[in-house]
Design a protein that fits this description.
Blueprint (H helix, E strand, L loop, with lengths): L3 E3 L3 H10 L2 E4 L5 H10 L7 E4 L9 E4 L2 E5 L4 H6 L7 H8 L4 H6 L2 H7 L6 H7 L3 E6 L2 E6 H4 E3 L2 E2 L6 E8 L6 E7 L10 E9 L5 E9 L6 E2 L1 H7 L7 H4 L18 H27 L1
């Protein structure tokens, strides 16, 4: 029978984490369904659970120095309710589409990326936000770029003695804005077939000064469209959508599965990227009006 531990402090949690194999539980929206599915298939072997939900100081969003700090227990609903700049509009759009309201009230952004599903909605947004992941162990803290955090199918670089404590997002200039688009088989409660997240900053003339675009569900890990980002620099945001071409999606490695073929996913990724850039251009015109 699996043991259940509820840590009251981070030090207690890290001590347990180092002493034995445990599965860290924050929101539980991935842990419980996965556990039930394994039982349904007759697999009764389960890891011990380490519940970190009562550890103080791990929940909430705040600006700290030159970055925003999103605590590991911050829920999708917390993100939606937080007073955040347009830089986070894309992440908030993703938060509205993560399951139903009950899931949004319990599920955490940190848990979403620790699950490391190719279809996880949080990861592309954090790539576009140039986020870093803070990990704690009894030896101290370290941060890892989001580009390196998920290193394989449902696998991260978080060590067996570490716990994710926060997500750090650098502050951007006031002209930075973001967007998120998701394609699924239905409108609500849907697993992504393709999703695209983007952050674009413009100068006073409306030309692109910085761009980060990330595609999810089209590769084992979320993928930045680096070639397109480079081609967008210095270009008018109003014309950005027309600059995206099929060659910019060559870095993607989609698969054929029950939800869509590889060819369909690649074509959809390009279409969503163009739509995202068009939406950002329209938002910029609206703000300027």
């Amino acid at each position: 029978m699996a043991a259940y531990y509820r840590a009251r402090t981070l030090e207690e949690a890290l001590t347990l984490r180092r002493s034995r194999p445990v599965l860290v539980l924050a929101g539980g929206t991935d842990v419980y369904p996965a556990r039930a599915a394994r039982i349904g298939w007759g697999d009764l072997a389960h890891a011990d659970i380490l519940d970190i939900t009562t550890i103080p100081g791990l929940r909430g969003v705040a600006m700290v120095g030159d970055h925003w700090r999103i605590g590991a227990l911050t829920t999708w609903t917390d993100l939606l309710r937080a007073d955040l700049p347009p830089l986070f509009d894309g992440l908030k759009l993703a938060a509205r589409e993560v399951g139903g309201v009950q899931i949004q009230n319990r599920g955490t952004l940190a848990g979403n990326i620790c699950t490391a599903s190719p279809a996880g909605d949080g990861a592309p947004n954090l790539l576009a936000l140039d986020a870093r992941i803070e990990l704690a162990s009894l030896a101290g803290y370290r941060t890892v770029a989001m580009t390196d955090f998920i290193d394989g199918y449902r696998h991260t670089v978080c060590r067996a003695d570490e716990i994710v404590t926060a997500i750090l997002v650098p502050c951007a200039n006031s002209r930075a804005q973001s967007r998120f688009l998701k394609l699924g088989a239905r409108k609500y409660l849907v697993i992504s077939i393709v999703m695209v997240a983007g952050v674009v900053a413009t100068n006073a003339a409306g030309r692109i000064a910085a761009a980060r675009l990330a595609v999810g569900a089209c590769s084992v890990t979320p993928t930045r469209l680096l070639a397109l980002e480079a081609d967008l620099l210095g270009q008018p945001l109003a014309a950005a959508a027309d600059l995206a071409t099929p060659s910019h999606c060559e870095a993607l490695t989609p698969i054929d599965d029950i939800r869509g073929s590889a060819a369909y996913r690649r074509a959809a990724a390009l279409a969503l990227t163009r739509d995202l850039l068009s939406d950002l251009a329209r938002d910029a015109r609206r703000r300027a009006a």
